[in-house]
Write a structure and sequence with these properties.
The protein is an alpha/beta fold. It folds into two domains: 196 residues, Class I glutamine amidotransferase (GATase) domain (Rossmann fold), CATH 3.40.50; 125 residues, Arc Repressor Mutant, subunit A. 44% of the residues lie in helices and 11% in strands. It contains 14 helices and eleven strands. Strands 5-3-1-6-7-11-10 form a seven-stranded mixed beta sheet, with helices on both faces. Strands 2-4 form a two-stranded antiparallel sheet. Strands 8-9 form a two-stranded parallel sheet. Strand 10 and strand 11 form a beta hairpin. Helix 12 packs across helix 13.
Length: 339
């Protein structure tokens, strides 16, 4: 694990519509700005164009024509390839994607690159056959088209992102940022990802299984009411907390607490607790030399075997392998509080 080269595909031939600039800017922001105090070297970012010039079309009056230093031939040399989006005409009207792009994506995958799509970029990975037989997602507005056009893809329209090892896909807009921070977490560890998220003023970690459909109409006073109890829970993860415990502290019924937390975060109270426990365990494994049994105790995950079970299931490696991948560089005393 470690920072490597990240190639971002820019489809120049139709221009870049203004509404697609967000997805394009996400990997540029996460991987393009050096963070030497967090990891040195940082990622090597490359914007790779398809080689054509902008033409008249739907995006011509509202988009930008970008000139890139790298071309499609440079995708095969990258450690990670990201397709932020594809033209609306390719999604809505079924216009073909550039054949050279599809060929380049297949070559990059065959060369060992980790393949990533944000939002409608999943259509490019699917066209290249890289999502066949895999679970994948995209923005919920486009998942029906994705499923119809590529029946071999197991499309999940309910999640923020899907990590299938060497191929990862995300929903639209902010979910793309969640996935990019997830990649940093995979590559450089939870501490680096959390610090980077703080600098970007975004949540440190939203698990991919959280719902795309979050009720944003929940009144602000509800969120303020949840904040203190969630902070308290993060500070007492070593306790065997239940939904009833949290609801009682929030002065709500368990049913009301469940509904409000789900509306505010897109996940259930028990899943939220598990995510917090795992994040805390990652931090302790990276920043301390505590025995695995003690890490399980401090995070409320119980025995070393139980901690190992959850780590393998949700992180993909054992606690011991995770610690070896992200060795401690500076001492940090253990704390009950979350990141």
């Amino acid at each position: 694990m470690g920072a490597g080269s990240v190639a971002v595909v820019v489809t120049e031939e139709i221009g870049v519509p203004s509404w697609d600039l967000y997805e394009l800017s996400i990997p540029c922001t996460v991987f393009g700005k050096p963070q030497p105090d967090l990891a040195d070297p940082w990622y090597d970012l490359r914007l790779c164009g398809t080689g054509a010039t902008a033409q008249d079309g739907p995006a011509a009056g509202t988009g930008l024509a970008l000139r890139t230093r790298y071309g499609l031939e440079d995708l095969a040399g990258a450690d990670t390839v990201i397709v932020p989006s594809v033209p609306d005409a390719c999604v809505e009207d079924g216009e073909p994607l550039p054949p050279a792009l599809i060929t380049a994506l297949r070559r990059a995958y065959d060369a060992g690159a980790r393949m990533v799509s944000l939002c409608t970029g999943a259509f490019a990975l699917a066209e290249a056959g890289l999502l066949d037989g895999r679970r994948a997602t995209a923005h919920w507005m486009h998942t029906a088209q994705l499923a119809r056009r590529y029946p071999k893809v197991h499309v999940d329209d309910s999640v923020l992102y899907v990590d299938d090892g060497d191929v990862l896909t995300s929903a639209g807009l902010t979910a793309g940022l969640d996935l990019c921070l997830h990649l940093v977490r995979r590559d450089l560890g939870a501490r680096v990802a959390n610090q980077l998220a703080r600098r970007m003023v975004v949540p440190a970690h939203r698990a991919g299984g959280q719902a795309q459909f979050i009720d944003l109409s929940v009144p602000g006073t509800d969120d303020e009411g949840l904040g203190p109890v969630l902070d308290w829970a993060r500070a007492h993860l070593d306790r065997p907390l239940t939904v009833e415990d949290l609801a009682r502290r929030a002065a709500m019924s368990p049913r009301t607490f469940y509904r409000r937390l789900r509306a505010a975060t897109g996940t259930t109270p028990l899943q939220w607790l598990l995510n917090q426990r795992l994040a805390r365990a990652q931090n302790l494994l990276e920043s301390t030399d505590l025995p695995i049994e003690k890490v399980g105790e401090l995070t409320g995950l119980g025995t070393a075997n139980n901690l190992r079970h959850h780590f393998v299931k949700h992180i993909g490696v054992s606690p011991a392998d995770y610690r070896r991948a992200f060795p401690r560089t500076t001492p940090e005393p253990p704390s009950q509080s979350g990141e």
